[in-house]
């Protein structure tokens, strides 16, 4: 028996989640470039490509290297490039991997162009577009866009533009999600059109997040959609209405190790080292604590949450205001905690338990 705490993965749900998004994007005529940062697993990635390989997005060069080892050769590194990492980028490209970097400044473009000239090979780059003020990126209409392209032309190669609608994680209606998806598309397409008008090729227009990928209704001008969380989903996505609780494919199995009846607590052996400290639902209309609690082989216990966590201890108690009694969970009982943020929770572990199989994760930087 696997020792707790551990990650439990429902392969059937993963397959259904993949089929749902692929069907949606197929109807819109745009391919998916999945982001593998959520699962960080070659086994999960191969489910996306019917056992084979295909275009992927990564968030670390360690991911890029591990997936290249597994035969993935079309990779976008979707975090702004740090100049000191360009040697690793070049090493991957020398292995035959079409690794594309991301940048949003002339300074980064200069570093990429200099590294390209020194190596005698043109590193391809995407310009990050700020579509909603969430994180990095150049603003549509900014003169810096063309300046970046001109700097890249001196040794490197402009591949296109990329946008990520991070603010969609705070859209709580279908209408708001659709609007975020359109804003993301429109911003990326505008920057691509500005680059072309200035005489620069811009073959790739890449957009995506799990909320907008499911909500988008028009992908005119877009060449690919990125999403990652959708393979597992989580309580944040359920809170946005992107999925249902039944779609959540990932949970953390923990064991009951004690009770504090005078406090209304059930103690487990799974603290924040098992589930992460992510409290993404705290900003949503329904706060799910550190996660909803479900039976090992069954449904959710009504109103039972993981309400607190120390490093290796989890506290289960009833949702504030609930008139339900604590369920009878004797010492030794195993339960599942459904996570707020699947990416953060999975990152706490080295592997997934999938039926009788163990699927390894790619960890490290």
Low-confidence stretches: none
Q: Tell me about the biggest sheet?
A: 7 strands, parallel
Output the strand order for the largest sheet.
2-3-4-5-6-7-8
Structural class: alpha/beta
Quickly count the helices: 11
Observed structural traits:
365 residues; alpha/beta; 6-stranded antiparallel barrel; 30% helix
What's the topology here?
Layout (H helix, E strand, L loop, with lengths): L5 E4 L1 H17 L14 H7 L7 E3 L2 H9 L4 E7 L5 H9 L3 E6 L2 H14 L4 E6 L14 H9 L4 E7 L10 H24 L6 E4 L2 H6 L8 E2 L9 H6 L9 E11 L4 E4 L3 H4 L16 E4 L4 E10 L4 E5 L15 E5 L3 H5 L4 E4 L2 E4 L5
Parallel strand pairs: 1-15, 2-3, 3-4, 4-5, 5-6, 6-7, 7-8
Antiparallel strand pairs: 1-9, 9-10, 9-14, 10-13, 11-12, 11-14, 12-13, 15-16
Helix pairs in contact: 5-6
How would you sum up this structure in a few lines?
It contains eleven helices and 16 strands. The model has no long low-confidence stretch (mean pLDDT 97). By secondary structure, it is of the alpha/beta class.
Describe the protein.
With 365 residues, this protein is an alpha/beta fold. It is built from 11 helices and 16 strands. Strands 2-3-4-5-6-7-8 form a 7-stranded parallel sheet. A 6-stranded antiparallel β-barrel has the order 9-10-13-12-11-14. Helix 5 runs parallel beside helix 6. The longest helix has 24 residues.
